Amino acid sequence: xxxxxxxxxxxxxxxxxxxxxxxxxxxxxxxxxxxxxxxxxxxxxxxxxxxxxxxxxxxxxxxxxxxxxxxxxxxxxxxxxxxxxxxxxxxxxxxxxxxxxxxxxxxxxxxxxxxxxxxxxxxxxxxxxxxxxxxxxxxxxxxxxxxxxxxxxxxxxxxxxxxxxxxxxxxxxxxxxxxxxxxxxxxxxxxxxxxxxxxxxxxxxxxxxxxxxxxxxxxxxxxxxxxxxxxxxxxxxxxxxxxxxxxxxxxxxxxxxxxxxxxxxxxxxxxxxxxxxxxxxxxxxxxxxxxxxxxxxxxxxxxxxxxxxxxxxxxxxxxxxxxxxxxxxxx
Length: 331
What we know:
disordered C terminus, 2 domains, alpha/beta, two-stranded antiparallel sheet, Nucleotide-diphossugar_trans, Beta-1,4-galactosyltransferase, 8 helices, Galactosyl_T_C, Spore Coat Polysaccharide Biosynthesis Protein SpsA, Chain A, 11% strand, transferase, disordered N terminus, six-stranded mixed beta sheet, metal ion binding
């Protein structure tokens, strides 16, 4: 259809071919505009979800606005997004000489998650653990291997370390075991003691100090070595020195330290659940770090079995308050 009347007063009618070309140009411009808008919309949508995806393997490609997935092998930990760092970013309160750069990187500080304070907000573990069960059945006829030990104690960290996950224990205990050629005893000790120590809500580590060779055994020297080695790993405030063949029959028998040195194995079945003599301090005993240092450790000059227990008792009894009774030492 042709326009026979002029479009504007005083102007000539526009030819049909020119009108068609103008319409096509307008449609092309509109399509281009919509395409560009769609691209920006799709690119910006990933960025808007970034606060919900902190720690997910999405990184900003340098020099672009869009977000791209970083290809990594399965199980690999993704790198942080550009501009996101676990280290504090320099700002107006930083040390003099450190410039503050308010560029793209600083814009990402709004999505950083502050460091977790979970450990700071955990309550202290109660003095008496509510997890204790009392008397236990000890059976040495069951088959125990390392695979079973690992399966039954999933919370144990590498190196035999454990700490309660729902409270902070004030008892940081290193358990020192003098050892040589007692593999079967050690498996049963670990099988029964790990659950006991966890129910007592102790922050503990186990150290097996092995004496190699076939020379005479020196229990006290191994205990001294264990004390020094344990302190290299953790700031322990309590040390329990235990023979590998002694297992408690009640988890109320606390493997921790008190205000005075404590003899833990006070009723042993091989002695008819009594002590061979009053001064006996062998088997299992607990000393705080200060108590151990007060007696300058254990005597190193006792080779073979026996003798060092009595010496330890005499050193402890002479170093504490004279008003201390044998009962308060667990005797």
